[in-house]
Amino acid sequence: MRRMISSVRDGRGFDLMLVGVPFAFLFALAGLPLIYNILMSFQEVDMFSLGSFIRPFVGFDNYAALFRQPETWPILTNTLVFVVGSIAGQFAIGFGLALFFWTSFPGASWLRGLFLVSWVMPGLVVGAIWNWILSGDFGVLNFLLRESGLIDGNIFWRSDPNFSLWAVIIANIWLGTSFNMILLSVGLSAIPGDLYEAAEMDGANAWQRFWTITLPMMRSTIGAIIALGLIFTLQQFDLFAAITDGGPNNSSNVAQYWAWDLSFRQYDFGRGATISVIMTVFVMFAALVYVRSTRHEVRG
Amino acid sequence: MSETARNRMMLVIALVMAAIYLFPLYWMYVTALKGGSEMFANPPSFWPSSPQWATFTYVWESRNMGRYLWNSTVIAFGSVALIAVLGTGCAYVLARYRNVWVDIGLFLILMLQVLPASLMVTPIFVGFTQVGLLDYPRLAVILAIAAKSMPFFVVLVRATFMAVPMELEEAALVDGNSRVGAFFNIVLPLARNGILVSAILIFMQAFGEFVYSKSMIQDVSLQPASVGLNSFMGPNTSEWNNIMAYATMYVTPILAIFVLLQRRIVSGLTSGALK
To answer: Were B68 and a residue from A93, A172, B85, B225 both cysteine, which residue would form a disulfide, CB within 3.0 to 4.6 Å?
Structure first.
């Protein structure tokens, strides 16, 4: 007993306790649900069997039924469009801004930090604001586009099936651009300046310097940021809830919103779990890319 | 072009870009101050002609915002407290040693960091129903948020502990401190700022959390402000000035904290996510 106490006070026991309790907690509240999710995807789970552990085992029926549903493929396509569109927009605008703020001038870092407000705001609030900006008849975005002559009639961003997904993508690009920019800035500032001096002396112009120095030096940063972007866009839920609610007619629905919708609106927890399992595999893959590209830094 | 002229020009361009980027935020504040007809005017006015400050008191009372914000605060504080107590020690150990087990632990942490809440909510909800945790819905949400955000906190705080020189701790041990004493008297105070900034980041996230609260809290009197905002926005709403007033009151405290601590928050965030 005394040895145990002294080990907690002075030795490995202390470390094991510090690290053991959190991991036990994470296992109970993240590891077990993950396993439980897989189990439920092979069961029939509805409102009536919610409270019992013993439920009818249905094998791969949930998976088969899911892919027979007519909306499955459109929703998975939407997910792909949402992910690619959001990441492309966030990254392009974020990189442009990061390059601009890299040319240091007084106030640059403070202003750059200010952009991050989009990231600290609750997602629901961001969604509410964009819902109003994108409104069809009275939205300010339609007004600005009309005035600048880009469109003739109003675009009904939220209720036109051709635009509803893009309404969420626009909001998501706005939300994620600042985060991309800040991380890209960190990567840019780590490039040694004398590389550019040498290239300039050799007569390389700004365009050539960008392609031969900046991009290659940023390769691992860019990989990490794209993977992070993938992770964050697959986590995006609040904007769908606040702007289109997945509608009209699933035209802006994506997998992660659909999984919630199946469980909590249609009370088909088995099928919700099935979609969750499929998406979790994708997210894990993105996480592997992210971990790989930051591994050296993480190990410190 | 001289150095100062160039700097001024860059600053002006930067201000214009920041103004464009932050326009949605401006539009929220302006709309909140507009009256019922001005809100739908065409062309829209970019400055409220007669600011309607009464909207704020009206929305605060009619939507019962005090209760919503109180619930948000309870949930956010609960999550941060739980995460800080559990996560700090974990981050310390993961920063102190370097071996295979630490690598595995870090890998697990990073993998857990990415699981989307909207996918995890199904098994968590069913599991919590079965063990009866849903009878205490706010506690259930706090636990779920803690599991979701703790990995991020651990990554951020670990970066802080890495910056604390090991020699200081060793010196404390030589001076007769126990490990526990050295941890609480030497290491923790040195890492205090980093822990605080990470906790604030987690707080801001938890303050706006939506998925878990929406799914697990059925009782309106226990719901946080994010769920309240969601139910305020019906599909065919036209009360946009009221909704924007709601959003303003919800988000302004967070923005104030952010602007005050901007420099620290930005540097804390960047050190954890990439480095």
So the answer is: B225
